[in-house]
Design goal:
Elements: H1 6-21, H2 26-39, H3 43-62, H4 68-100, H5 120-135, H6 145-153, H7 166-174, H8 183-205
Length: 206
Amino acid sequence: MMFNTPEFALLLIVTMILYYAVPRTRLMLLTIANILFYAVVGLRYLLLFAVVSGIVFICARCMKRGSKRFFLWFGISVSLINLIFFKYTAFIFKSIERFFSFTLVSPDTGWLKLALPLGISFYTFELIAYVVDVYKEKVEPETSILRFWMFIMFFGHMIAGPIMRGSEFLPQIKKLAIIRFQMGNMRMGVFLIGLGLVKRFLSQII
């Protein structure tokens, strides 16, 4: 689901209406919106994201109990292996085959044709930045898996960035219930969305 599609516009509008209409359910509402946004590309990629981010979540929590360096590198390794497998495996195999002039895997091999998971680069580097910040004690490990997933997979920046740091975004998520509607912020948000759509349109025709 791209930002310039009617489906995204519908998801955004419905989410915004419910966000201000039912303040007490905001965390769950945004979690559902994130899942719907991500599930468009396939449930298996949503499950993959849940597993990888869940492992990093647990690693960050375990740092409080000792073996900080082990859990740091375990979380980083899981994140990078996921990224490398989907983004660079085909390139690595083809490079080896060209260099040695022989075939390692058949061109029809199914796992070499897997689609790239949505936002994999962004969420990989967010997970790494988060676990490093916890290791350096710049941020406390999040205790709620819903708040953690909200931080990592927020659909507003999932495929276009920026890469958020826990110290920037997690405090905002914890204050969701007390945020009030402000017309000035709404106008600015609509302006920025419109500006982004114009830039996207111009980049396609120039």
